[in-house]
Amino acid sequence: MGSTLSVGHRERLSYEFDNLMSNPHASLGLLLSVTAIFTLFGGVIYYLLHTSGELGFFESLFRAWTFVADPGTHAGEEGFGSRLASLLITAGGFVSFALLIGLISESVQTKVEDLRKGKNRVLEKGHTLVLGWNSKIFSFLDNLAIANESEDNGTVVILADDISKEEMEDAIRENCNLRGTKVVCRSGNMVCVGDLKKVSAEKAKCVVILTDESNKSTSDARALRTVLALMRGIQSLSGHIVVEVVAKECSDLLELVGDGRVVPLVAHEMTGRLLIQCARQPGLAEVCLFSFSPFFSPFSLFFP
């Protein structure tokens, strides 16, 4: 019975230690505490074993710290007692200080990796928030960049869950001419309220929800869940919501859920109607092309 309890206690201590070391802040604090305590005891030992007796206690503590931080410092010690104390402090300090440096390096590397993956919060306001990623994103950003030239180069924030932040940035860099528009990419779940708050959805002037071209059968259902998350989870949402819809039947449901703030857009239906009308009316294609051009100004009709 005693052996069983002893094994259980050891396993419990090992379990608690693993949990402690898995937390970077707790493990860093533990190693700092161990290093400080080891330096304190090392200073006491050095003070007691120092042969000359000329050093004070605080000077001994400083010597102990130098032995911990720099293993080569003990080479200049004289006397058996001083050399023995410095050797013991250096041997223990070498291990603890190496672990401390390794843990700090790992923490910095983890933070850099989180920044690279786009896990930090976006601190923007008055921006255009794009939820999702498909082939239309490049033309959308090109035209929005042209429009933003007259608005002192606005900001676009993109949140997508099926592509990484690095892949989004590389694709935008290769396919878009941003003309000074700032684009911030983040990876996350567009249905999750926490991720929506991470991209400052409550401060966006407009939210655009794109279809999922890889799975169009569930795209509208995902858009509906996203609208619900925005309307119910983001209390101070100020911008309107534009939703790209696959099936026209979902438009009425989105308008009902959106409480008049959602604009559903059935892109393929609108495109089909334009193609039919342009085929029936000669010259209508040139009018539409001119009207939808980002360089179009209504004043040019009256003041050429």
Topology:
Blueprint: H1 2-22, H2 24-49, H3 57-69, H4 80-117, E1 128-131, H5 137-148, E2 155-160, H6 165-175, E3 182-187, H7 193-198, E4 206-209, H8 219-233, E5 240-245, H9 249-258, E6 262-266, H10 267-280, H11 284-291
Parallel strand pairs: 1-2, 1-4, 2-3, 4-5, 5-6
Helix pairs in contact: 2-3, 2-4, 3-4, 8-9
Major beta-sheet overview: 6 strands, parallel
User: In whole angstroms, how far apart are the ends?
Assistant: 99 Å
Structural class: alpha/beta
- Shape designation: elongated
For this structure, the quaternary state is single chain
Give the rounded overall mean pLDDT: 78
Number of beta-strand segments = 6
Q: Segments where pLDDT lies below 50 for 5+ residues? A: 1-6, 297-304
**Percentage of residues in DSSP E strands:** 5-15%
- The number of helical elements comes to 11
What letter string, H or E per element, gives the SSE order?
Answer: HHHHEHEHEHEHEHEHH
Rg over CA atoms, rounded to whole Å, is: 32 Å
Question: Which bin fits the share of residues in helices?
Answer: 55-70%
* Spatial strand arrangement across the major sheet: 3-2-1-4-5-6
What does this protein structure show overall?
By secondary structure, the protein is an alpha/beta fold. Helix content is 57%, strand content 10%. The protein contains 11 helices and 6 strands. The chain has helices at residues 2-22, 24-49, 57-69, 80-117, 137-148, 165-175, 193-198, 219-233, 249-258, 267-280, 284-291; strands at residues 128-131, 155-160, 182-187, 206-209, 240-245, 262-266. It has a 6-stranded parallel beta sheet with strand order 3-2-1-4-5-6. Helix 8 links the parallel strand 4 (206-209) and strand 5 (240-245). Helix 2 (24-49) crosses helix 3 (57-69), helix 2 packs antiparallel against helix 4 and helix 3 crosses helix 4 (80-117). The longest helix is centred in the N-terminal third of the chain and has 38 residues, at 80-117. It is elongated, with a radius of gyration of 32 Å. The termini are far apart. The relative contact order is 0.07.
